[in-house]
Amino acid sequence: MRKKMVAGNWKMYGNLLENKQLLAALVAELNGVREDVIVVCVPYVYLPSTQNELQNTTIAWGAQNVSQYEKGAYTGEISASMLSDFQCKYVIVGHSERRMLFGEDNDVVAEKYVAAQRAGITPILCVGETLEQREAKITEQVIEQQLMSVINVAGIESLSKAVIAYEPVWAIGTGKTASPEQAQEVHAFIRAGVAKQNLGVANQLIILYGGSVKANNAPQLFAMPDIDGGLIGGASLIASEFITICRASRH
């Protein structure tokens, strides 16, 4: 039986006071929920304070990006070993905003995935299509390319130490959401593709949906057989919303 997982992506929001209040609310309501995996992925500079607030709780923390390089003259970059210093358990790689705004292609994403795993950090690998790609009916082709770029470098077994997040780019921050059936169709395609190479890995692989998940649509999305939880953007910054979404994953 696969675990359910809900991961919050704070993006470039928050400050020390707001974060403290948000984390306190999450701990009060969600600490001790061991059957689920609950994660908050915070801006780099808030990793120390987040670690301080969440250590000795069952809520994990992670980062939103990582360098593909181990060390060196890469001004402004953060390595996986640096994340490990703050006991990061997870890191998001290949988010559509990194791909589109910062030019990260499939090869760079694959390098970041490998760098995270080398440091013992679980990558949350984001895949997904744009509206143009969906309308051109090449969604599956795009996602297969994104996945194979990682599998070709790291091997299919590496997915046993990873999480995949399907994020239709056209549904991020737009208020649009893929219907539960649309999302399920892509999740099933991803799992079937992995199963062709390794059925055991496919059966245990956590595949999250990320695309304007809210408290009011989470139950319908999470009820789908191949949707194992969510990668939550804006709603993860509102304690009541995020708590409700986390509770929806249990049913």
UniProtKB/TrEMBL annotation:
Subcellular location(s) of the protein: Cytoplasm
Can you state which reaction this protein catalyses?
A: D-glyceraldehyde 3-phosphate = dihydroxyacetone phosphate
Q: Gene3D superfamilies of this UniProt entry?
A: Aldolase class I
Q: Name one GO cellular component term.
A: cytosol
Keyword terms of this UniProt record: Cytoplasm, Gluconeogenesis, Glycolysis, Isomerase
- Taxonomically, the superkingdom here is Bacteria
E.C. number: 5.3.1.1
InterPro entries in UniProt: Aldolase_TIM (IPR013785), TIM_sf (IPR035990), TrioseP_Isoase_bac/euk (IPR022896), Triosephosphate_isomerase (IPR000652), Triosephosphate_isomerase_AS (IPR020861)
User: What are the positions of the active site?
Assistant: H95, E167
The answer to whether UniProt assigns keyword Ion transport to this entry is no
A single Gene Ontology biological process assigned to it is:
glycerol catabolic process
**Which Pfam families does this chain map to?**
TIM (PF00121)
UniProt xrefs under PROSITE patterns: TIM_1, TIM_2
A molecular function GO annotation: triose-phosphate isomerase activity
Q: Where does substrate bind?
A: N9, W10, K11, G173, S212, G233, G234
Q: Which pathway or pathways does this protein act in?
A: Carbohydrate biosynthesis; gluconeogenesis; Carbohydrate degradation; glycolysis; D-glyceraldehyde 3-phosphate from glycerone phosphate: step 1/1; Carbohydrate metabolism; erythritol degradation
Provide the leader sequence positions. Answer: none
Q: What class of enzyme is it?
A: isomerase
Could you describe the subunit structure of this protein? Answer: Homodimer.
Q: Which family does it belong to?
A: Belongs to the triosephosphate isomerase family.
Per its database record, what is this protein's job?
A: Involved in the gluconeogenesis. Catalyzes stereospecifically the conversion of dihydroxyacetone phosphate (DHAP) to D-glyceraldehyde-3-phosphate (G3P).
This protein is called Triosephosphate isomerase
Q: Which organism is it from?
A: Nitrosomonas supralitoralis
What gene is behind this protein?
A: tpiA
